[in-house]
Amino acid sequence: MSHNGARNLFIFGSLLCFAVLIVLTIDTIGTLDERAPEITEAVNAGKKVWHKYDCIGCHTILGNGSYFAPEMTKAVVRKPKEYLKKFILDPRTINPKAAMPKLGLSEEEADNLIAFLDWISKVDTNGWPPEPILTAAAGKGSSMGQTLFKKHDCSACHQIGGLGGTAGPDLTHIGLEKPDADWHIRHLKDPESVVPGSAMPAFAHLSDEDLRELAEYLITLK
Amino acid sequence: MQYESQKIAKNFYTAAALLFLIQIVVGIVAALQFIWPDFFFLNFNTIRTLHINALVVWLLVGMMGATYYVVPEESETELWSVPLAHLQFWATVVAVLLVIVGYIVMGLFPQANSMIFGTLLLNEGREYIEAPRWADWLIVISVLLFLFNNFMTIMKTKKFTAVQGVLLAGLTVLALMYLPGMFYTKSMVMDQFWWWWVVHLWVEGSWELIAAALLAFMLHKLLGADKKVLAKWMYIEAGLVLITGILGLGHHYYWIGTPKYWLWVGGIFSSLEPIPLLLMVWDAFRITREKRGVVQNRVGLFYTVAHAIFNFVGAGLWGVIHTLPQVNKWTHGTQITTAHGHLAFYGAYVLLILAMIYVTLPSIRGVKEFDQSKGYLAFWFMTISMVFIVISLTGAGMVQSYMERLLGLDYVTVKTSYNMWFWVFRAIFGVGFLVGVLIFVIDFFTLGKKSAS
Fold first, then answer.
1. Which of B48, B190, B334 lies nearest to residue A32, judging by beta carbons?
2. What are phi and psi of B345, to 5 degrees?
3. Candidates B192, B193, B247; nearest CB to A20
4. Segment B242-263 mean pLDDT
5. What's the pLDDT score for residue A150?
6. Total structural domains in chain B?
């Protein structure tokens, strides 16, 4: 290749690629609205809260950001909103082991932030993040109680045998710690009445039968 | 050095060296916070912001210094205005200090980061471009003054050499590509779309142009290689960097809410990104072999060749391993990215600026011979430490991808138990890296001074 040929490759090759990028950019921007829900005032206010507290300094969102704290794109899918709100307002009273400091958000800011997280969880991300293969494979449990445990995604917050979230207490040996099935039923119906300050949402909407099955399963965990 | 005004480069190098030291000290704090989150009085987000911003700024300042050295030499004339260069230097330093103070204030009092005229006062809350809008404008003005001064210098003699053509093209694109990060959008998808224009078209576009130009400059200066041959290969490298890199931007658009065709565009083009970087390695080796024996500044050449190698390994290989959508689906947003980021920045840009300093500082200080031993010592401390940091992070990333993404374990479980040793190793080698940086900084301030006295 001659000197001028090399120079032309540099100038025209890069200009051509840049022109293609412009075309693709225009096309992409035109499709974004269809690929995401409407942006309400609360969602926009929540996005501003996200920026104000520099959340990206620890978390990732859409997989981009800092890798110090959990990915936030599906936060509202993985954790109940009631829990998230209490946690954001004062992380360490909800989970003493949390690394997140109390940043001083107001109630309104927390609500808006959750509206924003709810919005982002509904964006069409071409299937990212993919469902883990183990979760996908383990669809049904071996007992009715275990099936209910999976159906209501209890492992989003609770671990059994190392698998599951860390937002709530580890349930691996819960049958030893709380061997009373009735205690579990009362707790599931209204967590705060049994454990003051609990951030766990109530499961009072479950039928008595389902609550009994779930409680019977929990006390087998020893 | 033939021109008195080239000495202005030293001011920029000094600022770069000091910011480099700050960057690594806060980097170690961040590494320790992975083990003890409450280790320091500032939270991790503030520390990380300081770590990555100090990096970006010292590399930019280093590039500016290098340009002020290269342009008079290539144009064969004094700089158009030395006072303007001084003004631009001090304005940059003051703006950077103000931004740093702002970050620390926000770290202590999060509520202080309030909305003023529709923008956040202290921190924009966007990775890498955290600097608030008022600082963005100061940065733009500083870069425009800098570009203006260099263009006017070129216009004095109108010697349009290939090296300064590509160098100034890279710097101009750099200035332009800062603009897509300077407006607010309601949609986080749109936000990240334009944000990647800034971040990607900087580090995998304009910065690589600057690297290609400076590599050619250094190979000529060190080895007296033929300018015409150097220029031809520089054009090919720079051309391929942009042809693969511009559309390689697509590898950031797989999962952020953008259409599916980016999986094809990004996958294909970004897979080709290592090719120009490999060419640069070949280029550096070929010329070095041809001209071996005539080199006086061996440590300068050493850094130059090391830059070419680690640019290829860090930016090229460590990038390409997770650039295909099929792989990236599982690794996106894990420590694999951190590993790639560390080795890429070190190889592509840290070693580039250090190489430029070792190539040009002796002549700025007016010495031909100088004690090169500290330069080598600093290199080995930094490079061995960085390699082990990257191995630790890659290990952590593999464990994280497998356990969290593939098996479905909780993020916090994987971070606080399974990956703990990786964080410990990373922190230990971080200290090793700091030792290397300290040796470099001492060498920077003392180089050539003994033999001169």
1. B190
2. -65, -40
3. B247
4. 97
5. 85
6. 1
Asked if B113 lies within 8 A of A53 by C-beta distance, the reply is yes
What residue numbers bound the domain in which B116 lies? Answer: 1-160
**Interface predicted TM-score (ipTM) over 0.90:** yes
Q: What is the DSSP string of B191-254?
A: HHHHHHHHHHHIIIIIHHHHHHHHHHHHHHHHH---HHHHHHHHHHHHHHHHHHHHHHGGGGSS
Phi, psi dihedrals of residue A164, rounded to the nearest 5° = 130, 175
What fold is seen in the domain A133-218?
Answer: Immunoglobulin-like (2.60.40)
How do residues B22-38 score in pLDDT, each as one tens digit? 999 999 999 999 999 99
| A41-121 is a CATH 1.10.760.10 domain | yes
- Give the closest of B127, B162, B330 to A66, CB-based: B127
B54 within a domain of the structure (yes/no)? yes
Q: For residue B120, which residues of chain A lie inside 8 Å, CB to CB?
A: 51-52
**B271, part of any domain:** no
Secondary structure of residue B435 in the 3-state scheme: helix
pLDDT tens per residue across span B316-375: 999 999 999 999 999 999 999 999 999 999 999 999 999 999 999 999 999 988 999 999
Chain A residue whose CA is closest to B242: A14
Q: Say if B124 falls within a structural domain.
A: yes
Our CA-based measurement puts residue B83 at a distance from the nearest CA of chain A, in whole angstroms, of 34
B406 interaction partners in chain A (CB closer than 8 Å): 132-134
In chain B, what percentage of residues exceed pLDDT 90?
Answer: 93
Asked if residue B234 has pLDDT above 70, the reply is yes
Establish if B293 belongs to a structural domain: no
The answer to whether B257 contacts A35, with C-beta atoms less than 8 Å apart, is: yes
A127 neighbourhood in chain B, CB within 8 Å: 329
Is B232 within 8 Å of A1 when comparing Cβ atoms?
Answer: yes
Which residues of chain B neighbour A171 with C-beta distances below 8 Å?
none
* Per-residue pLDDT tens digits for A64-79: 999 999 999 999 988 8
pLDDT of residue B86: 97
Return the structure tokens found at A73: 């794109």
Residues of A in contact with B410 (CB under 8 A): 159, 164-166
pLDDT band at A141 (very low <50, low <70, confident <90, very high): low
